[in-house]
Amino acid sequence: MPLYRDHAIVLRTQKLGEADRIATLLTRAHGKVRAVAKGVRRTSSRFGARLEPFSHVDLQLATGRTLDVVTQAESIAAYGEGIVGDYARYTAGTVLLETADRLVVEEKEPATQQHLLLAGALRVLSTGEREPSLVLDSFLLRSLAISGYAPSFDDCARCGEPGPHRAFNPAAGGMVCTSCRPPASAMPSAPTVTHLGALLTGDWPTALQADPRTRRESTGLIAAFFTYHQENQLRSLPHLDLTAGGT
């Protein structure tokens, strides 16, 4: 079987037989890959602990007919060590992994930007450098943008009229002007719109200035936008610790 190497983040795993496991991976060069790790559930396995969710690994894989096979695994970063012991980080991290799994649909199609975005978010989450809710909200917006669902927080999402605007509508694509505003649009505060724009662009000095009320309102709008454009809510979203970090 042909061999190839790639950096990968483990999104999820499932048992296979008595000792094997199937890992769903988001790789840097090959996109989403499903691969069998043989004997990984045995205590004598050479790389069992390296193939857990949240792990960033350097893999050698053999191409298979339906599933590839992991033949070597070296750890790049064990992000799980800084995530699984903290409920807020763990629940946010679970949403990160599920989001990446959801948005990268086709297997073996390059998804380098999504891989790099996820690796960066997990690194920051594992170190506690920023509050889990902020890391997650920024990741959701930016991963949606990479997938072609970029919201507009400045110009009108429908007609392009320069902002700022007052109404937000997920179906319309973000902020909309008075003329384009659909019924039942949300009316977020000006600080919330600024905060959303900062999260989308990675403007952390601005994002970190937001007060708890602004962050809560932003989180709700992001969840509504994601759910609309992905049709179904993420399974892990209801388990989030929304009280963490003052949000």
From TrEMBL:
A Pfam family per the record? RecO_C
Which first-to-last residue range defines the signal peptide? none
The answer to whether the entry has keyword DNA repair is yes
Listed under GO biological process in this entry are: DNA recombination; double-strand break repair
Give the keywords, sorted: DNA damage, DNA recombination, DNA repair
Outline what the protein does: Involved in DNA repair and RecF pathway recombination.
Task: Show the NCBIfam families listed in the entry.
Answer: reco
Which HAMAP family does this chain map to? RecO
Q: What is this protein called?
A: DNA repair protein RecO
Annotated organism of origin: Kribbella kalugense
